[in-house]
Amino acid sequence: MNENPPWKEPYHSLNQSVAILDPNGRIVSVNRTWATRASHLGVAPDWAQPGFNLFHYFQHGPHHLTYFNVRQLLEQFTHILNGDAKIFAVEFKAPTTGEELWFLAEVTPYVEEAPSPPQGIVITCTDITRLKRQEMQMQHALEHIRTLRGLLPICAVCKKIKDETEMWSTIEAYLIKHTHAEFTHDICPDCIRALYPKYSSILDLPPQPE
Hints:
By secondary structure, the protein is an alpha+beta fold. The protein is built from six helices and seven strands; from the N terminus they run ββαααβββαββαα. The protein has helices at about 30-40, 55-60, 70-80, 130-145, 170-180, 190-195, and strands at about 15-20, 25-30, 90-95, 100-110, 120-125, 160, 170. Strands 2-1-5-4-3 form a five-stranded antiparallel sheet. It has a two-stranded antiparallel sheet with strand order 6-7.
């Protein structure tokens, strides 16, 4: 591999963590973001040192890598190096004791000149914590939304609704059970005129200024 590619300096400014591995899984180069995050996540200095073998670490390292399917990861490394796959992506939650952090890891082949076979592997890790929080908030909201679909059997006389258990209940009771609606009772103008005609004249008065 070319030790000083023209993009070496610009890639240190990326917000993504980037590591380049040789075909044996040894780290050739990492950008500053990778080194900084490795330190923050407690896997430095090893994960930021050229020569450190990630393949060996995944095979024989500590058993706390429960956030990865290690066997699948090693298989994907092989597929990438053999040219059988162009990319492998996986989301994972970093094992921190403080703020919950989520990352998207993407594994792609390192090719200096196409169409030559891969000379190694590029691993990028993107912080997707904000997106995961939004996703979980949306999932939480959806879990608390209950909707009404289909045909509702309703009595033509009293307007009660028959539910899924064949029980009849008032519209208010049915909607409270199947939605998050709450009710406050009022009386419409038509019912006031029909039930309380002596009070209905107030409905014909012009609205009072506030």
